[in-house]
């Protein structure tokens, strides 16, 4: 279909700090005991997209991710892992792999996306409208259930909403304002408003970071605007802003359509494109291009920015905060269990056959117990994910938590709403509530923590 | 064989059955018919011009004329012919051409002539109801004759008056027969009025059913000669009248003589028919046939949920739950490997309604094909001709799933396939591809672009200063005609008639107002008011069939009929590549159903949109027809690139130039 897929896998994200460590880049964070990147890769594989470029920030992360991909998808996918320097942003990353891009359209997917929306819909919308960029929007996730959400994280999540302006048919993107800009006044371009006549402003939509770009346009923008760092914050708003006074050299149909009217009768191609244009209902772009009289001498250049809005029945979340991390883990083994790829037992949980449970230990529904894990007597696990080869003592309560691999938990611990990273040691009678424990940390016996982030000091 | 396949072919003849009284009778014998639903002659007053929209005036059919011309015993032989698709039969045509000329086909007469077909069917039903139909039938012959009297006495029916004389001379005899017939006929007559009234509107449905029955009858007749003779002998037993007996006896020894002749004739005809089938687009899926629908579903690329509440009469047409197809197709974007991206894009645009209009759809499709051919490479161990044909078939079936093809697209596909088939084997792949691409380009150029220009040149001569033109919806060619006429400095006014739900006319209106043409815009409800001031009606067409029927955006027929009633000439502008040899009598058999929600929803009127919420109610069925068929009688002239022709000349164009697609 002449699409090329670029997966932006990120590097060692700072926002996820106690979870992400030198050994675990963001893309390899486990969601239901599987790296989060695998969700994107499998979605793409399902859709027959097997030639991928995975862009990773920093060499070391690239090594880790490349190693994992080659072991997990050895003969299923053809993946190229490209390492780019840190802190150059998404736009910079694409600029760096510029020479790899050859297809006519590029699908850019964020590596931290967990969703079941087929990328085909974005591509199809893109092709249908012959758009310059098509973005996928999904409704804002309901962040955190009442029991698990820590208040501090919640506030942060609340601030991160976007203002998005759509045309009445909900097909074109008219306005994007993200994050911080929202605090100020919203400035809407008059020309766009005049051309469209009506604009829906939505704050309940989230940019899912799945874009389809026209390659020529993307490369042109990246080359021209050296300062652009981020696709979301710079490139997309720029394209949206300039859609009615396009400075891009578009090849293909659009420039033909806008060809001079005078020689129209001579050139059969232009007659045809006019014929086609007459038959379809013109979008506001075409109307605007023709000018107020419909016959302006130098038609204005326009390009289209489209959106695809995922329906509410689809699951679509990005793993970009700690809150999102625990939410996604909970959802993947709970509501959105079709994503996990595991088959659930009759009790609606997944317990690996090699896991060992002590007597009177109960594992509730929507739980997951990795291979080789051992649990002592009288434990209780509810709505939690426990990784591989964990050793859990007796009388341990784990609720709404994520315990990664190789964790040792002493007797009588109680863990609620927390994330415990790999190789952590919890000694006896530790009580954790809404905490994040960094990899390799040792929590002393009998200590109680609430809403804290515990990690080893970086040396 | 699929019995449905025959229906279209048989149509004209069965209608002719209505015209010649005996034919109905013969049908009775050959097989059982369904419950009668059509009104008898006497209840349609022949002089009234009020046609219900589904009634179709009779086609000018050679055999009609023939049956009228010959006297009764001769007519009795004609009934055997209805089995054959007469339109495609050159012999038949040629044999009866003189008669065709004689029966001057003026609209008034044709309007009057509408009733007989129904009468024919009606009486054939009644005859069936009573097993001893011989007597009845005789009477019905008489009745039909009398029923036709007004027709034959019509002031301008030159030929018919002659025929009437003949009949009048016969009448005494017939009358005497009637007396013999006695009480049964009285019964029958009593039955009829009660039957006829409520069924008046449904006539065409009844007609269709009658057609089906007729086909079955044909089959039965063809197969079981013994059966037939039995029935015939049964009836012959009660036969008292010699004249009436004559045809029946002929039937009686049918296997030996007349039906043998029929089979002979058939045998002669079959092979060409089969040949034709190869050329003709495959018969439309009948979507009320569950087995076929199931099969088609398995094959289909696009997942389609069929709409639940469908109008009974249109169940044979595909209708899907709107809004389910597009997301599904979109989500499969990357999974459809064999589909070329450009084909996919066009299909998507059809489905989403981004491309509309016969020409635009056809051009878009051809351009997509040309793209696909450019990117095509023959797989090893295969020949280009065959593999590419299979590929094109694939593409076409995909496009059909997105939206049913228009006739024009069907013709274009036929052209392309014949070009592929006729590629010389000696050509290299690159040469073959470039030759195909240039063929496609030439087709677009000659058949559409240049054709439009020529049509404009022709049509513009019909616009004079002071004219008031009326057009319906937005036809690209009509638009070009108006623009050109304006450019020539002609002084005229344009009335644009539009209709819900698409309001296509508004785009045209916008353009015309911009260039300074004085316009009136109204909706189709007001067409009878505005028609008074109109001097010419220009219409576009999606297709023109060989009986002269114009198939176009729904509402066109209404406009044409109103114009006819006001004696305003109706000019249809249509490129010749949209002509098709098929015969279409009503807009039911082949049509397209649009999104039913479109008619229940009124944008911007929340207060009356309550209906829309109840779309899922069991007892609410919404019908959004896309096309209708305008009978040829309401069309003064068809403007094509071959000149301005009357509707009667459509078969000539199809015959003389239709092959040219293939031979370009």
TrEMBL record, chain A:
GO terms for cellular component: cytosol; eukaryotic translation initiation factor 2B complex. Residues 5-149 form the Nucleotidyl transferase domain. GO terms for biological process: cytoplasmic translational initiation. InterPro entries: eIF2B_gamma, LbH_EIF2B3/5, NTP_transferase_dom, Nucleotide-diphossugar_trans. It is found in: Cytoplasm, Cytosol. Keywords: Cytoplasm, Initiation factor, Protein biosynthesis. One of its GO terms (molecular function) is guanyl-nucleotide exchange factor activity. CDD domains: eIF-2B_gamma_N (cd04198), LbH_eIF2B_gamma_C (cd04652). Pfam families: LbH_EIF2B, NTP_transferase. Component of the translation initiation factor 2B (eIF2B) complex which is a heterodecamer of two sets of five different subunits: alpha, beta, gamma, delta and epsilon. Subunits alpha, beta and delta comprise a regulatory subcomplex and subunits epsilon and gamma comprise a catalytic subcomplex. Within the complex, the hexameric regulatory complex resides at the center, with the two heterodimeric catalytic subcomplexes bound on opposite sides. Acts as a component of the translation initiation factor 2B (eIF2B) complex, which catalyzes the exchange of GDP for GTP on the eukaryotic initiation factor 2 (eIF2) complex gamma subunit. Its guanine nucleotide exchange factor activity is repressed when bound to eIF2 complex phosphorylated on the alpha subunit, thereby limiting the amount of methionyl-initiator methionine tRNA available to the ribosome and consequently global translation is repressed. This is Translation initiation factor eIF2B subunit gamma.
From TrEMBL, chain B:
Coiled coil: none annotated. Residues 30-53, 65-76, 212-236 have a biased composition (Low complexity). Residues 97-117, 134-146 have a biased composition (Polar residues). Residues 1-302 are annotated as: Disordered. It holds the Pfam family IF-2B. It comes from the Eukaryota. InterPro entries: IF-2B-related, IF_2B-like_C, NagB/RpiA_transferase-like. Gene3D superfamilies: Translation initiation factor eif-2b, domain 2. Residues 1-14, 157-169, 188-211, 238-254, 263-294 have a biased composition (Basic and acidic residues). Belongs to the eIF-2B alpha/beta/delta subunits family. PANTHER family: NAGB_RPIA TRANSFERASE, TRANSLATION INITIATION FACTOR EIF-2B. This is Translation initiation factor eIF2B subunit delta. It comes from Coffea canephora (Robusta coffee).
């Amino acid at each position: 279909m002449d699409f090329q897929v670029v997966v932006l896998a990120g590097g060692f994200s700072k926002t996820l700090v106690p979870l992400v460590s030198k050994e675990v880049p963001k893309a390899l964070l486990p969601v239901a005991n599987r790296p989060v990147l695998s969700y994107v890769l499998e979605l793409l594989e399902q859709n027959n997209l097997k030639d991928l470029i995975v862009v990773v920030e920093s060499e070391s992360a690239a090594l880790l991710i490349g190693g994992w991909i080659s072991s997990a998808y050895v003969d299923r996918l053809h993946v190229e892992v490209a390492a780019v320097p840190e802190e150059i942003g998404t736009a910079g990353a694409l600029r760096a792999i510029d020479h790899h891009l050859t297809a006519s359209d590029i699908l850019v997917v964020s590596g931290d996306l967990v969703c079941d929306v087929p990328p085909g819909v974005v591509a199809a919308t893109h092709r249908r409208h012959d758009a310059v960029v098509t973005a996928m929007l999904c409704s804002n996730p309901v962040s955190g259930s009442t029991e698990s959400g820590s208040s501090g994280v919640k506030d942060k999540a609340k601030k991160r909403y976007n203002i998005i302006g759509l045309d009445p048919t909900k097909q074109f993107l008219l306005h994007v304002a993200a994050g911080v800009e929202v605090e100020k006044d919203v400035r809407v371009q008059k020309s766009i408003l005049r051309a469209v006549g009506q604009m829906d402003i939505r704050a309940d939509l989230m940019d899912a970071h799945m874009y389809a770009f026209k390659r020529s346009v993307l490369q042109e923008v990246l080359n021209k605007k050296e300062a652009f760092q981020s696709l979301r914050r710079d490139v997309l708003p720029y394209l949206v802003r300039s859609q009615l006074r396009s400075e891009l050299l578009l090849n293909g149909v659009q420039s033909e359509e806008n060809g001079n009217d005078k020689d129209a009768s001579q050139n059969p191609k232009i007659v045809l494109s006019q014929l086609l244009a007459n038959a379809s209902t013109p979008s506001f772009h075409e109307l605007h291009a023709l000018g107020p009289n419909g016959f302006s001498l130098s038609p204005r250049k326009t390009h289209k920015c489209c959106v695809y809005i995922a329906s509410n029945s689809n699951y679509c979340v990005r793993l970009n905060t700690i809150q999102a991390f625990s939410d996604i883990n909970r959802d993947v083994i709970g509501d959105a269990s079709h994503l996990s790829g595991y088959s659930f037992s009759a009790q609606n949980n997944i317990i690996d056959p090699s896991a060992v449970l002590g007597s009177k230990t109960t594992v509730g529904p929507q739980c997951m117990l990795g291979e080789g894990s051992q649990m002592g007597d009288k434990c209780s696990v509810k709505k939690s994910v426990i990784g591989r080869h964990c050793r859990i003592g007796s009388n341990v309560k784990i609720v709404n938590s994520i315990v990664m691999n190789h964790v040792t938990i002493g007797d009588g611990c109680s863990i609620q709403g927390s994330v415990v990273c790999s190789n952590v040691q919890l000694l006896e009678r530790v009580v954790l509530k809404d905490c994040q424990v960094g990899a390799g940390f040792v929590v002393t016996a009998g200590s109680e923590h609430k809403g804290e982030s515990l990690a080893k000091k970086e040396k | 064989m699929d019995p449905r396949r025959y229906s279209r072919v048989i149509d004209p003849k069965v209608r002719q059955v209505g015209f010649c009284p005996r034919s109905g009778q013969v049908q009775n014998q050959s097989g059982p018919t369904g419950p009668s639903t059509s009104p008898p002659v006497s209840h349609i007053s022949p002089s009234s011009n009020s046609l219900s929209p589904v009634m179709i005036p009779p086609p000018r059919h050679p055999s009609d004329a023939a049956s009228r011309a010959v006297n009764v015993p001769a007519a009795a032989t004609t009934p055997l012919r209805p089995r054959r698709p007469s339109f495609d039969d050159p012999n038949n045509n040629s044999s009866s051409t003189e008669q065709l000329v004689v029966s001057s086909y003026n609209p008034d007469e044709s309007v009057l002539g509408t009733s007989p077909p129904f009468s024919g069917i009606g009486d054939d039903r009644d005859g069936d109801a009573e097993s001893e139909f011989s007597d009845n039938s005789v009477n019905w012959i008489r009745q039909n004759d009398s029923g036709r009297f007004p027709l034959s006495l019509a002031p301008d029916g030159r030929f018919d008056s002659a025929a009437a004389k003949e009949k009048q001379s016969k009448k005494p005899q017939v009358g005497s027969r009637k007396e013999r017939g006695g009480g049964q006929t009285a019964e029958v007559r009593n039955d009829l009025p009660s039957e006829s009234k409520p069924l008046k509107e449904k006539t065409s449905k009844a007609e269709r059913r009658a057609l089906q029955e007729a086909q079955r009858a044909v089959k039965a007749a063809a197969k079981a000669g013994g059966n037939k003779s039995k029935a015939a002998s049964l009836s012959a037993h009660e036969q008292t009248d010699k004249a009436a007996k004559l045809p029946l006896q002929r039937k009686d020894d049918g296997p030996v003589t007349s039906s043998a002749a029929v089979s002979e004739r058939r045998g002669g005809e079959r092979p060409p028919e089969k040949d034709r089938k190869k050329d003709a687009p495959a018969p439309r899926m009948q979507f009320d046939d569950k087995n076929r629908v199931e099969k088609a579903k398995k094959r289909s690329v696009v997942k389609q949920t069929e709409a639940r509440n469908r109008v009974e009469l249109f169940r044979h047409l595909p209708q899907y739950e709107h809004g389910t197809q597009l997301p599904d197709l979109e989500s499969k974007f990357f999974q459809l490997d064999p589909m070329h991206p450009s084909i996919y894009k066009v299909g998507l645009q059809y489905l989403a309604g981004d491309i509309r209009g016969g020409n635009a759809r056809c051009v878009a499709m051809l351009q997509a094909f040309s793209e696909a051919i450019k990117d095509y490479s023959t797989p090893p161990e295969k020949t280009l001709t065959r593999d590419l044909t299979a590929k094109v078939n694939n593409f076409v079936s995909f496009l059909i799933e997105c939206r049913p093809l228009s006739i024009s697209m069907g013709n274009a596909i036929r052209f392309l396939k014949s070009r592929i088939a006729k590629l010389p084997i000696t050509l290299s792949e690159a040469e073959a591809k470039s030759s195909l691409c240039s063929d496609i380009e030439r087709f677009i150029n000659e058949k559409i672009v240049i054709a439009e220009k020529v049509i404009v040149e022709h049509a513009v001569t019909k616009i004079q200063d002071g004219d008031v033109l009326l057009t319906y919806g937005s036809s690209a060619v009509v638009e070009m005609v108006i623009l050109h006429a304006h450019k020539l400095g002609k002084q005229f006014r344009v009335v644009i008639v539009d209709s819900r739900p698409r309001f296509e006319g508004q785009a045209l209106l916008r353009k015309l107002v911009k260039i300074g043409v004085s316009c009136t815009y109204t909706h189709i409800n007001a067409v009878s008011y505005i028609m008074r001031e109109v001097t010419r009606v220009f219409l576009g067409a999606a297709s023109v069939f060989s009986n002269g029927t114009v198939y176009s955006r729904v509402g066109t027929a209404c406009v044409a009929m109103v114009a006819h009633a006001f004696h305003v000439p109706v000019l249809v502008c249509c490129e010749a590549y949209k002509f098709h040899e098929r015969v279409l009598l009503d807009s039911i058999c082949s049509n397209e159903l649009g999104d039913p929600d479109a008619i229940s929803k009124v944008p911007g009127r929340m207060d009356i949109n309550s209906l829309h919420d109840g779309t899922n109610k069991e007892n609410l069925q919404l019908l959004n027809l896309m096309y209708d068929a305008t009978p040829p009688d309401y069309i003064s002239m068809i403007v094509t690139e071959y000149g301005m022709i009357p509707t009667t000349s459509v078969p000539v164009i199809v015959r003389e130039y239709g092959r040219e697609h293939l031979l370009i």
